[in-house]
Amino acid sequence: MSQPLSTVILAAGKGTRMKSSLPKVLHKIGAKSMVKHVIDASYQLNSEKIILIYGHGGEQLKANVIEDNLVWVEQKEQLGTGHAVQQILPHIDEEQVLILYGDVPLITAETLQNLLAVAPTKGIGLLTVDLPNPKGYGRIIRDAENNVVAIVEEKDANDEQKLVNEVNTGILTAPAALLKSWLANLSNNNAQQEYYLTDIIAMCAQEGYPIATAQPAEAAEVEGVNNRMQQATLERIYQQKQVEALMVEGVTFRDPARVDVRGSVKVGQDVAVDVNAIFEGDVELGNNVTIEANCIIRNSKIADGTLVKANSVIEDATIGEACFIGPFARIRPGSEFAEGVHIGNFVETKNTKIAKGSKANHLTYLGDSDIGSGVNVGAGTITCNYDGANKFRTTIEDSVFVGSNSSIVAPVTLAKGTTVGAGSTIVKSSAEDELVIARGKQRHIAGWQRPVKKK
């Protein structure tokens, strides 16, 4: 194909069967809107222009689809696919036009490239698929020489035509000049009283232009979403593809059917993932990383040899080599751990840097902190970083030992080698190698009588 390419994406439908205030094409597959999947495929084709036809929920669509190379065209009335494509006429000239659908999210660039490759210079390239149960789809009608001569919609098909298994996917390509002439001659004289884009197939055949067909590698590529069940079906197919790709890269999944990939995951060798793991955004897992059950990893990098134990959440964080995280750890944005850091059960960190070999093994909150190497933070320790208006940082230098149930009130620095006695509330900085204790005085009252409940 030597002509420049304009890709048209139909996204004007209301999606009534979704029963949602959100435009249908903004519903997600793999944490990305359906229309964004289609836009991304269009970019891979090097489209010079991407035209998005919108209607229902246009403002929501524009607010959620932020792309530099989009031409927005409104379809004010929904009068069929042909009417929708008629709206693009002022925006096309002599280029090749490819027509896609915003609710067909699994279409691949490879399939579209195959379609463009077979498309005649003058004529139509049509994507079709053979279905064992074609009910509800427009049938591909061929003549005795196997040439495509028409597409007949289900409601307009006779009994013989309904036996045809080859169906129209709606995806097609044609030169703009011919497309303009065919669109100008569309009629709504049919059962739905709509302008069918598919009617241009018969026009093309009647004028003697060739119609070439291609098929997707899998039928799921061209399945549309009209309701929540169909959305769930495509979600599972999408997830299966993501997991299969990761297994090809060497990842071991305890159960491939119980993992969700909602973004991009890069992996090293010998990564192991247990059930119900969720990966969101951009995630990178180094060699020999193990993710146990029920973990959520979001926009984070985890280096070689790290173990993330069950029920942990890691978000916008960088985890160094050979760390131990969890179980039930919450690693929040801005957390950066060096090699060999241990973060145990019910420990939360946020905006905190922890150097090599330091440990916080139990029931601790470390926020807005800079923690040196070889530090031990006892159970129940809290960095008190917020005064109700502003946040302050805590600095804990190398080889500090913080006893259990301690509160460290920022801003404060615990110098190298400091030991904090258990149960202390620290409000002043320490010098190196000091023992710091700040407790209430313990009293002993002999013969104490406990209160007795009044009858």
From TrEMBL:
Coiled-coil blocks: none
Region (Pyrophosphorylase): 1-228
Self-association and partners: Homotrimer.
Cell wall biogenesis/degradation recorded as keyword: yes
Membrane-spanning intervals of the chain: none
Annotated EC: 2.7.7.23, 2.3.1.157
Pathway the protein contributes to: Nucleotide-sugar biosynthesis; UDP-N-acetyl-alpha-D-glucosamine biosynthesis; N-acetyl-alpha-D-glucosamine 1-phosphate from alpha-D-glucosamine 6-phosphate (route II): step 2/2; Nucleotide-sugar biosynthesis; UDP-N-acetyl-alpha-D-glucosamine biosynthesis; UDP-N-acetyl-alpha-D-glucosamine from N-acetyl-alpha-D-glucosamine 1-phosphate: step 1/1; Bacterial outer membrane biogenesis; LPS lipid A biosynthesis
InterPro entries (UniProt xref): Bifunctional_GlmU, GlmU-like, GlmU_C_LbH, GMPPB_C, Hexapep, MobA-like_NTP_Trfase, Nucleotide-diphossugar_trans, Trimer_LpxA-like_sf
Domain Mannose-1-phosphate guanyltransferase C-terminal: 262-354
Residues covered by region (N-acetyltransferase): 250-455
Chain positions covered by the region annotation Linker: 229-249
Span of domain MobA-like NTP transferase: 8-122
Protein name, per record: Bifunctional protein GlmU
Cofactor note: Binds 1 Mg(2+) ion per subunit.
